[in-house]
Amino acid sequence: MTLIEVQGLVKNFPGRHGSITIMEDIGFSVADNDFLAIVGPSGSGKSTLLRLIQGLDRPNRGRVLFRGKTVEGVQLDMAMVFQSFALYPWLTVKENVALGLEARNWSRERQEAQVERYVNVTGLEGFEEAYPRELSGGMRQRVGLARALAVEPAVLLMDEPFSSLDALTAEGLREEVLQLWQDPALPPEAVLLVTHNIEEAVAMADRIIVLSRRPARVLAGVPVQLSRPRDRKSPAFYELTDYVYSLITQGSAPAPLAPSAA
User: Fold this and answer.
1) What is the spatial distance between Cα 76 and Cα 235, in angstroms, rounded to a whole number?
2) Which UniProt keywords apply (predicted)?
3) How many whole angstroms separate alpha carbon 182 and alpha carbon 194?
4) For residue 126, is it left (φ>0), alpha (ψ between -120 and 50) or beta?
5) What is residue 259's predicted lDDT score, i.e. its pLDDT?
6) Per-residue pLDDT tens for 232-259?
7) pTM (2 d.p.)
8) d(CA 208, CA 203)
9) Is the pLDDT of residue 31 over 80?
10) 45 and which of 23, 163, 171, 172 could share a cystine (Cβ 3.0–4.6 Å)?
């Protein structure tokens, strides 16, 4: 079942000498159970695209459909995990996780149970009363992930969620996100991951949308048909990573992908 349809999106921003077109005629779809990665050069509007999908911003032309209806405002069935953690420093871990639940009109008991569940799911037990300044970068991002999952979104949007972390912490958190994603008892129904890291996209996603330089267009939708867990040292993994890299750097499709990486 198709959850999201992105149809002919155009987005402009004002500049000193007139408007600047960030993206031009962007289109793709996201199905139930998709883990979709979006990659492209810096300035190609990847983060802006996530904002348009969630309804935090409006396109100049085109539209986004969510479950068959045009997105015209913020979608409460989507949740975002940010690169910068976006935590309130004066709130505890528990209070930060609870933030998104206040708009749900749930009872206090249900909110508390939900917070406890996702604090546990994301490995934050024992840190409920801690403040963000007392946490490492990896733990702060766990709080951001718990806050997003607590609202039980149909779609989880992740904007460079691991780029501010050291390599070992980032790799551990990637594995945990995949474990959560593969657990049928947990949300979401689909994940959209924006990343500059091509290996990360190949390691995590089922499909990769490759954007061109500004004004961004979709160069390709690349399926990732590699079994999980993915072996980063395998020839197929390397070939697929190189193929996506070539798409971005050349700005057009290179030679067809070798069968071993398909």
Assistant:
1) 41
2) ATP-binding, Nucleotide-binding, Transport
3) 19
4) left
5) 46
6) 999 999 999 999 999 999 876 555 554 4
7) 0.90
8) 11
9) yes
10) 23
